[in-house]
Amino acid sequence: MTTPADVHQVRDPELPGRLLTTERDLLVPLLRGRDEADFALPVVACPGWTVRDVLAHCSAALTRVVEARFEKGVFSPASNDRDIAERAGWGNQRVVDELERGMTEVGPVIAKAGGVLDILALGEWVHAGDVRVTFGEPDAYAGAGLPYALALLAHVTREKGHLPLHADLDDADEPLRLGDVSGEQPPARYIGDGATLVRLYAGRPVDGASYELAGVEAGALNIFGE
Q1: For 33-178, where are the alpha helices, taking DSSP H only?
Q2: Phi and psi, residue 225, nearest 5°
Q3: How far from 59 is each of 41, 48, 202, CA to CA, in Å?
Q4: Sorting pLDDT into bands at 50, 70 and 90, what band is 108?
């Protein structure tokens, strides 16, 4: 019997935008309510960056996409550092304003790009989780956006021809098939919750998480370190 895990899903062009607007409605009010000092907290997942730096990176990346500014070296570490430096004189709330606009406006642009920018939406959502971890807030890499993030993760890993993995998720009714679906190599297996699976694919710490992973080393799952 065919299950959703066996079907090679067609790209949903609206999914990245849906993920980002869902996250916008949760993250922006959280940021508006934080003290100014909280924006200077270091983000463990992004060594050398503060919360403000992460947010400036995210808002700049979204603005670049909305404005179609893709010069040579865009999204490289050097380009990211320049984007952050360009916003050094901005107030924290101006950075949040730009982030909110970007999360609102970027969806249709990503949809029209044919898939090449889908991973950017996933990266933005992961960075929101990084900020939540720093603040000690619940639902880091989880919450209302998790179903959209998992669906996008499955699509991105399939398109990248990433190693195949069959995930039995504690918080989902159906298994999730990620990576290469050609059947040419046996899939690795994951048992655990969706947030931990996202952490593994994003190269984030999973200390204390309860999960099982067989057939692959955790470090090989990271899609942002390729």
Answers
A1: 51-67, 77-86, 92-112, 118-135, 146-159
A2: -100, 5
A3: 18, 18, 19
A4: very high
Q: Are the CB atoms for 22 and 145 separated by under 8 Å?
A: yes
Taking the model in full, what pTM does it have? 0.94
Q: Are 166 and 189 in contact (CB under 8 A)?
A: yes
Burial class (CB in 10 A: 0-12, 13-18, 19+), 187: buried
> The tokens of 134 are what?
């720093």
| DSSP-derived 3-state class of residue 188 | strand
What are the φ and ψ backbone dihedral angles of 141, each rounded to 5 degrees? 60, 30
Which residues have C-beta within 8 Å of that of residue 111, sequence separation ≥ 6? 13, 14, 16, 17
The pLDDT, as a whole number, for residue 140 is 96
Q: Name the residue among 72, 81, 79 with its Cα closest to residue 47.
A: 81
For the CA atoms of 49, 52, 57, 63, what is the dihedral angle to 10 degrees? 180
- Evaluated on CA atoms 77, 80, 84, 87, the torsion sign reads positive
Q: What is the pLDDT of residues 9-32, one digit of tens each?
A: 689 999 999 999 999 999 999 999
User: Alpha carbon of 155 to those of 9, 19, 40: distances in Å?
Assistant: 7, 14, 35
Contact 184, 163 (CB under 8 A): no
Over residues 33-77, the pLDDT tens digits come to 999 999 999 999 999 999 999 999 999 999 999 999 988 888 899
